[in-house]
Amino acid sequence: MSSFIDIPADSDFPLENIPFGVISTKDNAALRPATAIGDHVVDLKAIADAGLFAGPLLKAVAVSVFSQTSLNAFMRLGRPSWREARSTLQSLLSKGTASRLRDDAAFRAAAIVHKSTVINHMPAQIGDYTDFYSSKEHAFNVGVMFRGKDNALQPNWVHLPVGYHGRASSVVVSGTPIRRPNGLIQDFATKAIHYSTCKKFDYELETAFFVGTGNNLGERIDIADTEEHIFGMVLMNDWSARDIQAFEYVPLGPFLGKNFGTTISPWIVTMDALEPFRVAQPVQDPVPASYLASGPKDAYNLQLQCDLKPHGHDTSYTISKTNLKYMYWSMKQQLAHHSVNGCNMNAGDLLGSGTISGPDDTSLGSLLEASVNGKKEVVLSADGAVKRTFIEDGDSLKITGKCEAEVDGKKIRIGFGACEGTVVPAAQL
Amino acid sequence: MSSFIDIPADSDFPLENIPFGVISTKDNAALRPATAIGDHVVDLKAIADAGLFAGPLLKAVAVSVFSQTSLNAFMRLGRPSWREARSTLQSLLSKGTASRLRDDAAFRAAAIVHKSTVINHMPAQIGDYTDFYSSKEHAFNVGVMFRGKDNALQPNWVHLPVGYHGRASSVVVSGTPIRRPNGLIQDFATKAIHYSTCKKFDYELETAFFVGTGNNLGERIDIADTEEHIFGMVLMNDWSARDIQAFEYVPLGPFLGKNFGTTISPWIVTMDALEPFRVAQPVQDPVPASYLASGPKDAYNLQLQCDLKPHGHDTSYTISKTNLKYMYWSMKQQLAHHSVNGCNMNAGDLLGSGTISGPDDTSLGSLLEASVNGKKEVVLSADGAVKRTFIEDGDSLKITGKCEAEVDGKKIRIGFGACEGTVVPAAQL
Ligand SMILES: [Ca+2]
Ligand SMILES: [Ca+2]
Ligand SMILES: [Mg+2]
Ligand SMILES: [Mg+2]
Ligand code: NI
């Protein structure tokens, strides 16, 4: 496949991707659905209004769903419609296929804009946000720190994908500044409790998926059907205040240590675009209960990276390189588990992976792990001058991700764009 | 105050109440805002369309906010507007004040309908739902069961109102059947883990409040301002699967043990209606941090009751009589705490009290406590024939609540209507 749009070789958004997002532009403040192609962005409202979603599923509904300010209505249509939209756009953007988009210069200039004029918005209205804890390496590393090596994993961990409800309102799109939180913190040595600014500001490198179609309350999504319900994936930074979290979280879980902000990348990459990158997930021992039964290739070879740009610097330093394929529990298992009790899932629900840590020191997905809860400085610059235990005000973090594989002799690269945020100083106490 | 509508002496909805909800009627399926008065319901869309919200704040916006299918738009207007709506309705419904509602029989018949023709719906679209754990008696009782008397309360408990994020999608209105959930359960004796139907199905007697106006991400709601942000209260049953919860909840908190369903009463009683029933909250020792500083009367003398109607029976048995005034942490403190880290609250957010247990055996807000986690049968009928450790299929639970006080020599009673649900058998495993 090649496009009449010039696509840089290292682009996250080749014709094989076709992610979905919501944009406005400098000259049009209206929020509308869009896709990304190379360094350009295609306005899906313009495509729909021109009648170019002409396939059997979308023909009658495209104008309506692509006139919304979020993708929720499109998500509710179901996977056959998502597939039709993607293949229609691939065809419209192809070099070799005649289309109004390719051949009508005035229409093309209105419907396709350069990314420099685009403002990304939240792609969906999130009804509920859940975060899992599905990396065995991460759960083990954290467990060792707080309970020692022998009790690192709780007894439930290998039997089900542990997760908790997060705060939907504070999930924000890449680029939104994140304010350092205040809260109650216990001094480790004296045990004194202070109302204070967070001193252990951390990130968590995660991915997340959006539910496309849901289930009714009291029903469940069978694991065999889960792939029809998952719309696509984004990168996620689950910013975490470790000192606030440490004092508050027993016995009901993380709350203010997490809900001050969670950043996602703006473009939702569909599961169809990620299909060539499926790999076997780690062997699960013990074998999970029947409702969590896996398929042969339920993991994804998605390379992930987090870069930190220190305040006052122009250089970024890579602080983690990890991979989604390490995850013990799959997205299918997370969704089947979430609904096994009849919990109703809806279009736009966001389900986070949990921090993705790999097997070694360079693949840890949080500074909590890399600095051993602040005990060890993480050296960033080669000269040793720039180092961190936790994140400082003015630091920027950027998570990126890409899948690479050879498909039919051609090297394919699918990326996610950036999940980026800069930490701003706390409000007055 | 007296109304031209005949109001039974024991009604939850005298002219002093004026709660807000969302209804449809047998002859009009459109969802619209309403208030309750005695055994009748007033259609607020009809009142707005007739131009009767003529006060300075609502005049221009009443048609718009009362044409919505939820109260969220009305909530966003702020407390002065909520007050104006309530006093306008009190005046329109007064016996002694001329109004089109009182004097135009045809209009009255269209705008005021008997409750028997009304279907109640969710009053607001809940963005995020949080449940607290603010009854010291409940936290202590549960703590003793799981950690013994000396470690019953966690160290954080007296310093902050412990809470966690719940699932917004499965909050349902009174009358919705609740399906018994399935999930992974660990056998206490053998430690074996089974995919099974819940065997310890419980309720939690709670109240909850709706946020009216919120705050921006990164800002906080000062405790001195919290009363302007709280729209009103409902009764809540936080159905709980104790066996699923017990296995899953470490270390990230309750998840599938809770998120299969939460029932609320349909009418939101405003804080203005509850003002005469304010009382001092329990003494807090240690004194909380400055951002949690209390006023002199931040508790409410709200009498609460839960009745169980066993399957196959026509009689209900009271299983709990408790009072909101026992709560250690106030709603003001819960809201100030929730936002102290900059977490953004929105109109329609629901914040639960946590199980409300009182000081003795008759005031326990859950069967977990009353049956000591299933070890002791709770006798319901005088002859001892009807008893429960947990809730059985077909059982109905009904939570009710009322405030009573003498105001200017007149006995005032403000009620909440019912928060009711019947348990239906689990789905096939
Ligand atoms: Ca996380
Ligand atoms: Ca509860
Ligand atoms: Mg977060
Ligand atoms: Mg519940
Ligand atoms: Ni261009």
From TrEMBL, chains A, B:
Enzyme class: hydrolase
Residues the entry annotates as binding Ca(2+): D131, E204, E206, D238
Molecular function terms, GO-annotated: fumarylacetoacetase activity; metal ion binding
UniProt entry keywords in alphabetical sequence: Calcium, Hydrolase, Magnesium, Metal-binding, Phenylalanine catabolism, Tyrosine catabolism
Keyword Calcium: yes
Pfam families with a match to the protein in the record: FAA_hydrolase (PF01557), FAA_hydrolase_N (PF09298)
Segments forming domain Fumarylacetoacetase-like C-terminal: 130-424
Cofactor needs: Mg(2+); Ca(2+)
Residue ranges of every copy of the Fumarylacetoacetase N-terminal domain listed in the record: 16-123
Pathway: Amino-acid degradation; L-phenylalanine degradation; acetoacetate and fumarate from L-phenylalanine: step 6/6
Active site residues of this protein: H138 (proton acceptor)
InterPro entries assigned: Fumarylacetoacetase (IPR005959), Fumarylacetoacetase-like_C (IPR011234), Fumarylacetoacetase_C_sf (IPR036663), Fumarylacetoacetase_N (IPR015377), Fumarylacetoacetase_N_sf (IPR036462)
Binding site for substrate: Y133, R147, Q245, Y249, T355
This protein's name: Fumarylacetoacetase
Top-rank lineage group of the source organism: Eukaryota
Catalytic activity from the UniProt record: 4-fumarylacetoacetate + H2O = acetoacetate + fumarate + H(+)
GO biological-process terms attached to the record: homogentisate catabolic process; L-phenylalanine catabolic process; L-tyrosine catabolic process
Binding site for Mg(2+): D238, K258, T262
Family named by the database record: Belongs to the FAH family.
E.C. number: 3.7.1.2
Keyword flag Metal-binding: yes
